[in-house]
Amino acid sequence: MKVLIADDHGIVRDGLRALIEKHPDWEVVGEAEDGQKAVQLAVELLPDIVIMDVAMPNLNGIEATRQIVDKLPSVRVVALSMHSTRHFVVDMLKAGASGYVLKACLFDDLVNAMETVMTGEVYLSPRIASMVVDDYVNDVSQDNVPISSILTNREREVVQLLAEGKSVKQIAMQLHLSAKTIDANRRQVMDKLNIHNVAELTKYAICNGLTSIEF
Known about the structure:
Blueprint: E1 2-6, H1 10-20, E2 27-32, H2 35-45, E3 49-53, H3 61-71, E4 76-81, H4 86-95, E5 99-102, H5 107-117, E6 123-124, H6 126-138, H7 153-163, H8 168-175, H9 179-193, H10 198-207
Parallel strand pairs: 1-2, 1-3, 3-4, 4-5, 5-6
Helix pairs in contact: 2-3, 3-4, 7-9, 7-10, 8-9
């Protein structure tokens, strides 16, 4: 089984590689330090599984998962995150992830997740599974849908990059679009969210899992 690891912390990638390659039938074929690199390597290396951190710079794990699953439907993505908040889990599953594992859990939990998703099933850490069951039992209302769902994929990318301190020109170059287009995206997002400055937009991005306070 070919595995791609995507996490912005080198020490985490090193640890995962060491643990995964102890399994005789598993091979780590690549490592990515951000979401954009994860998408690029997934297309180049065609892994069976991508271990995907949720909060990463340039392109977060949610958007990277959405792009990978769209391009490579057979690839299984397992989210590995410190976040157990509902909207992180919901957004990752909606993006196409087949599993969600908390970093606080033991490595055995990740192994179980990888083995489970390769059979075509979904795996959630026990703590996450309990939350999902509670939501189902309580019939969560539409009002609790993550606010980030009102933005398009492109708008979410722009919000993340703005929150990470990039200028409109830098974002345009990174996304291969015109500065005019990015500026229009920025204004449209602010209108949708009733946000009036980049500081408020950054707070929104952090609260809704589009970026991390570390960036």
